[in-house]
User: What shape does this take?
Amino acid sequence: MPLPHVAPATLAIMGTPDRFPVRRIFCVGQNYADHAREMGSDPDRQKPFFFTKPADAVVDGGTVLPFPARTADLHHEVELVVALSGGGTDIPVADAAGLIFGYAAGLDLTRRDLQAEAKKAGRPWDMAKGFDRSAPIGPLTPGIPPASGRISLTINGDPRQSGTLDQMIWNVPEIIAELSTYVDLRPGDLIFTGTPAGVGPILRGDRLEAMVEGAAPLLVAFAG
Ligand code: MN
Assistant: This one.
């Protein structure tokens, strides 16, 4: 039997035809206080926590995506995504920025109805968070992401999410350092760093524009 050919998951990079190889996708939950509150949590008492998506959940922007199956409540979460070119375990906060290849605007697409069911039953979030094409990401801008600046999302031109990167409860170096106490971070790993307030539903036919300071805009449309 011939072995199957499995194409690696990759991301576009600004200014080059080269593609960034994606190894794993980690995500931070509730890393902006206003979003933690809108999800019913107390941001002052809960540390940010981590979940994952499969590497091949990544998808380029600038395309029309099929509307995901098995949901009547697909939600948008605009996020700063960082891509690592280095790694390690127990990384000191002071060393974390040196491991970053680049950053981009991303969408942590969420089947909120399935997530709510999972939370209620104490079950895993994988089918709510890690489905096919659940991680649209714009082209990577090489370099360190800004510590402040705007993060926002519009749907069909209407403002839906707006915040600033300095509203993160844990900043990017702190996230990398903390995550590296759970896993051995490696080149190719991506980290979604949390979403500001204003998450809400996406409808069939909607056109989303995700913006993160310093990164290329991410445009995603859903089939009608
Ligand atoms: Mn998220």
User: Anything to note?
Assistant: DSSP finds five helices and 18 strands in the chain. The helical segments are 33-38, 93-96, 112-121, 126-129, 172-179. Residues 27, 77, 79, 108, 192, 194-195 surround manganese (II) ion (CB under 6 Å).
